Amino acid sequence: MILTYRYRIKDGANATKRALQNQASAVNFVWNFCVETDRIAADRYRAGRHVSRPSAFDLIKLCLGAAKVLGIHSDTVNAVCQTFTDARQAIFPKTPRFRSYKRHLPWIPVTRLIKAAKLDDGTLTFLKRKYRLWYSRPLPDGAKPKAWNIACDARGRWYVNIQAEVTEGEKRSGKSVGIDLGLKTLATLSDGSKIEPPQFYRKAEAQLAKFQRYGLKKRVTALTAKVANQRKDFLHKVTTRLVRDYAHIVVGNVSPSKLAKTRMAKSIQDAGWTTLRQQLLYKALKLGAVVEIVSERHSSQMCSCCGIIPVNSPKGMGALGIRHWVCPGCGSSHDRDVNAAVNILRVGLEHQPPVAEILAL
């Protein structure tokens, strides 16, 4: 299992910022060289010549000696070429765009941590320069560092992102729970408990609008970053508690990207459903739990007691205001979200293989 550990660099000194900016500028130069080379090859191919698009190996060969001239590590050049070909593969036959400081945040990729740098008790030594980190948590024992990079956020703060391979936790047995994601309640569990949404963006919306009216771009950026950090911290606490309390977690596959095109766009983005599911997935691997993402089709409409879809059950966007309903078939009274969570859990349990198949494995 590959996890990314993020540490902020203590970049208060101007010399530190200048060194990182110079390397990021050199990275953009190498990237733009790859773009130009690929475009030339594509133009020649369209003109009828037998020219193939350059591979990562071809670009690395063309960049031999550039690292010393530009003042960056050779592993950085290799990582830029490899990342470029990966980005091109995703949009082939098109070519990725040029990088600039106006459209892209500064970024310094490196292929291997052990070869290119040294991390010792919160101090990163890279290209004979030492960068002190806020070493909030060390890498786990036995973790194998892989690729890493140095990146800058919108506020000009530099971070080291280390991808490390860690061992997965042993599978454990325990309680199962279904989770229905929503807006009125961020998450409703099948046992009846609910997690209320903190709505960090809604609380800061008035102040954010004020900064935007007066053209205070730095204040807007700082407040937006603060809201994002608050949301991420809250979701980390929620997902950690869920993974520790339950061994089997089933979540509905509600699509934020589709709902973000409706009038509920701000609330959808403020909820952070995608981040919540991603955190559940990797934390479950680490702590030995199981997380499933299943279809939530008809989960709000179907009675969790008798399994029928009555006429009076809430259906469609127009019925979002119906929070409680009574099943005419069995007479059960349902909370809309709890009923959906129970149905989601049932779908997850039905996907589990029989005990005989588990023993055979």
Mind telling me the C-alpha Rg? 25 Å
Tally the beta strands.
14
Shape: elongated
Q: Helix/strand-derived class?
A: alpha+beta
Work out the strand percent: 15-25%
Per CATH, what is the topology of the largest domain?
Nucleotidyltransferase, domain 5
Mean pLDDT: 87
Question: Quick one: CATH class of the largest domain?
Answer: Alpha Beta
User: What is the CATH architecture descriptor of the largest domain?
Assistant: 2-Layer Sandwich
Helical region count?
Answer: 12
Percent in helix:
40-55%
SSE arrangement, N to C? EHHHHEHEEEEEEEEHHEHHHEEEHH
Major beta-sheet overview: 5 strands, mixed
The overall number of domains is 2
Q: How are the strands ordered across the major sheet?
A: 10-9-8-11-12
Description:
The structure is a single chain. With 361 residues, the chain is α+β, with helices and mostly antiparallel strands. The protein has two domains: 2-165, no CATH class; 176-360, Nucleotidyltransferase, domain 5 (2-Layer Sandwich). The protein has twelve helices and 14 strands. The protein has helices at residues 14-46, 56-62, 66-70, 74-91, 113-116, 200-213, 217-245, 256-259, 265-271, 273-287, 336-350, 355-360, and strands spanning 2-8, 107-110, 117-120, 123-126, 129-132, 144-152, 158-165, 176-181, 187-189, 194-195, 248-252, 290-294, 324-326, 333-335. The strands form four sheets. A five-stranded mixed β-sheet has the order 10-9-8-11-12. A four-stranded antiparallel β-sheet has the order 1-7-6-2. A hairpin with a 5-residue loop joins strand 6 (144-152) and strand 7. Helix 2 packs antiparallel against helix 4 (74-91). The longest helix is centred in the first third of the chain and has 33 residues, at 14-46.
